Amino acid sequence: MEFKPHKYQDEAINKIIEIDRCGLFLDMGLGKTVITLTAINDLMFNRFEVNKVVIIAPLKVAEDTWVKELSKWDHLINLSMSLVLGDKAKRIKALEIQADIYVINRENVSWLVTYLGRDWDFDMVVIDELSSFKNPSASRFKSLKKVIGKSSRVVGLTGTPNPNGYIDLWSQIYLLDSGERLGKTLSRYRDTYFMPDKRDSYRIFTYKLKSGADKLINKEISDICISMKAEDYLELPDKIFVNHMVSLQNRKAYDDLEKEFYFEFEKGAEVTASSKSVLINKLLQLSNGAVYMSCYDYFMVHDDKLNKLEELVESTLDSPILCFYQYYHDAVRIKSTFSFAEELSVDTIDRWNEGKIKLLLTHPSSSAYGLNLQNGGNIIVWFGLTWNLELYQQANARLHRQGQKHNVFIHHLICENTVEERVLETLQRKGKVQDELLDYLAFKYR
User: Fold this and answer.
1) What is the sign, positive or negative, of the torsion defined by CA atoms of 51, 55, 60, 64?
2) What domains are defined for the chain?
3) CB atoms within 10 A of CB 242
């Protein structure tokens, strides 16, 4: 297929070429994969600045998206790719193949750094979903931090750079500039731009921005980071959010557990919450219809959400539904109710996009990044919400992206007067903070 880039895609390609260490905060659906591959192609075969590239991506994206995009476009015919996936033996074999681009899932970054040791010879690193490196304590960040300075070029791709606020930015920007803009350490970053928020006598649990610090951070990183929102460049169909308020039939179980941190169900089953955080998780489980008694055993409490999902399935007739669940028991109970429901996997992606699956189930952490599912349907149902804004926005973008021809309906199943209402409010509040950064970094045509 011939690639005819939009003007904004040309600008993004040029940014990767012009800036050695570049952060592209591109909204979902703007074509960041083909943008990046086109820049790599130019740097490798026209400018001779790059010889060997590693792309670090979420697992399903590494398995599916990058190789499909490479084979899709005529102008990329000279690029070769090796997928460094699977068990250790398969990964080693893939690294031994002569290729231009090596794609590895982010869970194996630490292994790659250890395996190559001093022989790290990638002169370009592409981090697909840079925000998955937002935790400076995570082994993937610590490992990549050791070697990324050896690579002359780094590209960080994400549509959600600060899903939980500006505190998330430090480690991501560090991988781009080795601490030049926001400081060499997280503690220095916090001391400069933040003040303690929630704390006790010994520990600080959260930080909040000092007055005007957000503007200072935005300015510091604006020379290497650009933002593009889909709404500014694409005529996408509307997103229509629908909240379905579900009444709990077993209200006593929820209220007593919330008040006493304990509840005894029939047949002697009992649930105890040892802390507020555990309590919130148990309340969310209960809202969905079942509560874990142990790591694997759960007690069914109600079918209120299943009944609401059944109404939605019936009302949408033959229209496919992409359903996001939060707990394993959600998927088990949904599949036992709907015999035609299937789990998302590499094998079901094509069948979904061909319109052959009526109800596709997936956890947002398994499918939120990079997958193109817009051809299979336009209806999303959140059986249970996530606290994570990044996963929430990315998951919705599996259908609401370039190529979608219909308005996308996003249904939330929310139990009335429960912690689920607070989760929805939190997602909306976090979204406003992130929008401030993206608006500042938004790339405007000159």
Assistant:
1) negative
2) 7-233+435-441 (3.40.50.10810), 239-431 (3.40.50.300)
3) 13
